[in-house]
Amino acid sequence: MDSRKKDIQKAKNGYIELCRFLFCAMILIHHTAIDPEIGTILPGGFIAVEFFFFLSGAMAMRHLAGEKREIPQKMHYAMSYTLHKIKRIFPYAACGTLIAYVWRIVTVRDYTAQTWQELAVLPFELSFLPMAGLVPTRLDRYMNAPLWYVSAMFITLPLIVYLCLRAEDAFRHYIVWFVPFLIHGWMILHMGASWGWGEVTPVGFSGLLVAFSNMTMGFGVYLAAERLAGKKFGVMARVLLTVCEVGAVALCFVFAASSPETYSFEAVILFLAASLTITLSGASYTVKIHGRVWDWLGKLTLPIYCVHWWVGQIVQVYLGEYAYPLRILFTLIGALILSLPMLFIVENLPKIYQRAKMSKR
Predict the structure, then answer these.
(1) Those residues with Cβ within 8 angstroms of residue 260's Cβ, 6 or more apart along the chain or in another chain
(2) Phi first, then psi: what are they for 346, rounded to 5°?
(3) For residue range 132-190, what is the model confidence (pLDDT) as tens digits?
(4) Cα–Cα distance for residue pair 308/296, rounded to 1 Å
(5) Torsion-angle region of residue 201: left (phi > 0), alpha (psi -120 to 50) or beta?
(6) How far, in Å, CA of 76 to CA of 211, rounded?
(7) Residue 56 — φ and ψ, nearest 5°?
């Protein structure tokens, strides 16, 4: 096996961390820069979620590809893997959601039946169950609505991992290549578009279909990257791959700034999937991007994502008279101020606890 092919199973690419931060910023702007008359300045900013679904699927496939032992209890393994991912996300999501509820409680002047109903949703948000459809309310009325992505991943990822383990041949050679297109096609035919996440379908919220199809495609992205990593490229070919890789990400930002159209959306996410394939393969020059700066940008992505929604709402309420750039800046600064202590606590509290436990012995 080529050394570059081995690298895609262990290396932390700084370019991926940069992309994670940029796409998180795209979501922040999509949610923050909203005007009652002209809407958001990034109407297609929701495409950033597809990147995270692709990446989650690709990382899951990378994990399974590195698994050498026989796995007898496949669904148990799939649930354990998913819960391990959720365990990493939960502290940030819980902090962001709880602070949102505290802010809501403090700012409410008159408690009505509707207010209590809103507050009663908290257990479902903390359990990542909004996408299960248990609460009869619009998803964008949750205190931390963007966590629908985590809820959809929590529900659908175990099934994808199970299919990969249980029907490996069919999964690797058919499901990852065709099922995502069939799901997107069904959504277009029956809903008019395939990017909705809060529409009701016969199988629940449409976000579940989006999550299943795009994470499955992410599995295919990794498999394609593995094949690409085994090939040798000259300087010109690597330059061309780098241009295509970065250009596809730039195209996503162009799409985000334009009014979304059905078929253009599908085309853009295909380019995005191809871009991530090149990145994970290590066949381009972005593989040389490493450093603490990029690692830190990647680390900040999750806590910023978990708090940006209601920070943006606070900015809209109290600083709404300021222009778009300033409101975006205020939201980003507010999210950063909250994210840094969250990172410190989540990363160091277990270490402090272990030291205290050891000192008592």
Answers:
(1) 43, 44, 46, 47, 193, 195
(2) -65, -40
(3) 888 766 666 788 889 999 999 999 999 999 999 999 999 999 999 999 999 999 999 98
(4) 18
(5) beta
(6) 21
(7) -60, -45
